[in-house]
Every structure is written in C-alpha cells, then in structure tokens.
Amino acid sequence: MRPENITGFFFWLSFVLLAYVYLGYPLVLAFLTAFKRREDATPIGPHPKVTLIISAFNEQDVIAAKLNNALELEYPKPLLQIMVVSDDSTDLTDEIVSRFEPMGVLLVRQQRRLGKSAGLNLGVSHANGEILVFSDANALYKKDAILHLVKHFSNPQVGYVVGNARYVEKASETQSAQAEGLYWKLETWLKKKESLFHSVIGGDGAIYAIRRILYSPLEPTDISDFLNPLQIIDSGYLGTFEPAAISYEETAESFRKEYRRKIRIVSRSLNALRRVPRVLSPFHEPRHWFLLVSHKLLRWFAPVFMISALICAVLLLRFPLFRWMVGLQLAFYVLAVFGWLTAESKTAWKICTFPYYFCLVNLASLIGCAKCLRGDLSGVWTPPRQKESAKA
Length: 392
Hints:
single chain; alpha/beta; eight-stranded mixed beta sheet
C-alpha cells in the first residue's frame, strides 16, 4: 500500500471517530431509543432510611444554605440522616455545620486532608441509611428530589440512581459559562437516552444515590461518582436517570477555573476503568460496553483523533481536498484562540466561544489521559468556585 493511502486511511479514521463521538453517537442513541418510553417508578412499601452525605472542603460561603436546603427536603425526618464530611477544612465550615447539630445534622471531620473519596469512606462508616445519597456543598435540591431518587429502588435490579443536576443561568455570566451550560444540556439528554437503552453512564457528584450494600471502599485517588457506578454495573445491577430529582448549582465564573478540575476528572475516570476492567469487555455486558465506549472512552481520546487528522491532512497537502481540510481545521483553531482571548468578556463573539470551549475541553482530556497513563493522580480537590490560586 502506498504511503499516501496509509496516511489517508488514518485521516479518515480520525475524522469518522470524531464525527461519531459528537454527532454519530447521539443520533445512534436517539434511533435506539426512538420507540422506548420511560416507565415511572412507583414506590413499594415504606420509605427506606436515607443518609444524605455532603462532601465539603472550605465551603463556608455555601454550607449554611446547603444545610437549610437539606432540612427543608420533603422526606420523613426520622428516616433522613444529614451528614457533612469535612475534608480537614481550614475555614469556618466546621463551625457553621456545628450550629446545625441541634437540628440533627452530623459533622464527620477528616483530621488530615485525604480527599473526597477517603472522606466518603469515613462518612459511609457513620451512615445509618440503607440508601446513600451523595451531594456537593453547593448543590441545592428541589424539595422532592430525594423522594424521586429513592422510588427507583423499589426495583431490585436498580443499584444506583442519578439525579438531574442543572446549572443556574445568570445574567452576568460569561460566554464561557454559557458554553458550559450548553454542554451540560447535551449531557443531560444523553443520560436520559442511556437510561432508556440500558444504564446511565456514571453518577453525578451533585446528586446521585446508591444502595449502601453496593458501596465498596475507595482508594484516595478514586473518583467516586464514576467508579461506584462501574462497580455496581459489574455486580449485575442497573443505573437509572431520574429527571425529576433536580439539583441546582451555579456555573463557574470562568471556565479556566473548571479546567484543572476537568483534567483531574478525566485522569481519575480513566483510572477507574483499570480498577474494574471487566466493564471494558463487550462480552460482559454488551449494551453498557457500547454506551461506555461511545460516551466516555472515545471522547477522552478525541484530542488524539484531532491531532491525527491535522497531521495527516498536512502530509497530504498536495491533494486539493486535503488543502481544504487543513484550511478548515486551522480556521477552527484560530477562532478558538480568539475565543480564549475574549472568553471572560460578556461581549465575546459566540462564533469564537464554541471552538475555544471545544478545544479547551479536549486539551483537558489529553492532559488527563497523559496524567493517568503515567500514574500522576491526585486524591484531593478544590471546588472551582474557590480561589483560582488554591491547589487542586
């Protein structure tokens, strides 16, 4: 085979994979679920005991609002345990939580900063609920959110339930924040379709629930809301998405504040696949494998396809078609640069914002994959709403 044919093959392979990740997969998923209808879950028997576990590190600005919100939830009070796991917070978080102890809120403090996953291990050891609901400190729930989550556990096949995390749109938010909100709307749509087809892929740190008997202790570098669902699927259970279980949180003021978090998420999520290797076998659970590879694995490696497509097109510049391909790709990246330069401006051109966001997400994926492959995993986190100078 001639060298240009080999180069052309890799260009079109990269192009097709990219097109599949961002266009083909949603279309295929829409086709596969076109005639499926969601059946509303109906609770059977009494409400189960629930423990709401709120992870916190230096959350003094939001923790009081979160606890007031938790205390107003429509769930039988004797059956709802509210717990805050403080990861060695150094601000007023613990002091604020302690003010809510007379109202039944439990503070569990890690004496050393070990990270969210280690904190969840500690929190679960103090939990008395048969259903565990995991939440972030800035995620405010609709009053009936836990009722909607818990009703699905009347089905013995359901191992975890993912709620509907929504971003609150602000008039003052930047174009970058709006791009994040648009991206999240696509993610929500995919979750609905995946749940119809088989199981929603992964959880959501803001709002998801599991059966306590299915919780496996985590290593500090594990990402709980991705590894836990993988372990549950591997055990033969299903995961479902509940759009009526709604939580609200604000978008980050700047996507740059989200950038390091996204790197950390990709690196630890890829590592989770090494922890549960059977889910990568198409023979273990074919439908989940298809969703996992299409939604996550191929997307994480999309930047490799982008680089391959550009290099291959440059090597084939003597052909008119590939001169067009190089020109289109370079134009897209030029727009991304302009988007980067104006990302924090409210007057940024929308035509530049999408390329910028797309490229930055894929750059984070590329770095995250590289960090995972070389074993550079972090067990601690800094919420993106905190100061940018704080270490992640």
